[in-house]
Amino acid sequence: MTANLALAGDVEAPALPRAPTLRGSLRAAFLDFYYNSWRLVPANMLWGLGLIALYLAFLVWPFGALLLLPLLALPTVGLYRMAALIVRGESVSFWNGIGAWRRFLIPALAAGLALVSAGSVFTVNLLGGLASGDPIGWAFATLAGWGWLVMTMLAVTFWPLLVDPRREGWGARRTLRLAGYLVVAHPLRLVGLTVATAILLALSTVAFAALVTISVALAALFGSHFVLASADRLEAKLGERGVSFAPDAARP
Questions:
Q1: CA-to-CA distance for 150 and 176, rounded, in angstroms?
Q2: How far is it, in rounded angstroms, from Cα 138 to Cα 131?
Q3: Does the pTM exceed 0.85?
Q4: Whose CA is closest to 46, among 187, 213, 224, 164?
């Protein structure tokens, strides 16, 4: 009787989600793609058509293609929305991806514009610093290289969080804040995710058909599995310390 009362009186804290691994996330991404390929391939092809259109625009007017590049964020956010729904175990269709274009229009375009702008600055500084042939130029190139890495880590973290169905209504600012916390809390893991994603997409450029049909969707699933599990763990740990990222209306 006493033992039963003691057990009844013990209130255990909810268990943290299991820490994700790159290998496990990649394996889960391949499985999810296999079972949802008929939904994801058309969305990936839509992304590929956007890339081809930008390439053709670049041949005619390079600067204009650069101005249009942020628009590629729309098919990107659509793919990540579908990936996040799949990872969360919710029903998903091709039209969820299309609907994400309107639903996340402003934050997606803002993210695309920020990435293109920052990437352009980092690229100019990197190439200019390497070509300068002096220590000051090399220092600028080194800073630009680190800037590229941090920007890419934030990007692969931000996209899954922005479209996560469990974080509806957060907005871009809170999402970016959580992405920044994740990068600071798990820098090596996210470097690994960033490098693995870059390798996956780089290998796909050798077989261009893979890039425009499967690779971006697979990268979105890979990143969503890893980032969403990591974010759930970090948010639970910070919640124990009274730190919350959710909007006031979503807090208990």
A1: 13
A2: 9
A3: yes
A4: 213
The values of phi and psi at residue 61, to 5°, are -150, 90
Which residues touch 180 (CB under 8 Å, ≥6 apart)? 154
Q: Is residue 4 packed enough to be buried (19+ CB in 10 Å), middle (13-18) or exposed (0-12)?
A: exposed
Q: Do 161 and 227 meet the contact criterion of CB atoms below 8 Å apart?
A: yes
What is the per-residue DSSP string for 181-214? HHHHHSHHHHHHHHHHHHHHHHHHHHSHHHIIII
Phi, psi (rounded to 5 degrees) for 119? -65, -40
Dihedral sign, Cα of residue 75, residue 80, residue 81, residue 86: positive
Please tell me which residue, 21 or 17, carries the higher pLDDT value.
Answer: 21
pLDDT digits (tens, 9 = 90+) for 139-188: 889 999 999 999 999 999 999 999 999 998 888 899 999 999 999 999 99
Residues 6 or more apart whose CB falls under 8 angstroms from that of 247 comprise 169, 170, 171, 174
User: Identity (one letter) of the amino acid at 238?
Assistant: L
Please state, in angstroms and rounded to a whole number, the distance separating the CA atoms of residues 80 and 6.
46
156: buried, middle or exposed (CB in 10 Å: 19+, 13-18, 0-12)?
buried
Single-letter amino acid code for the residue at 179: A
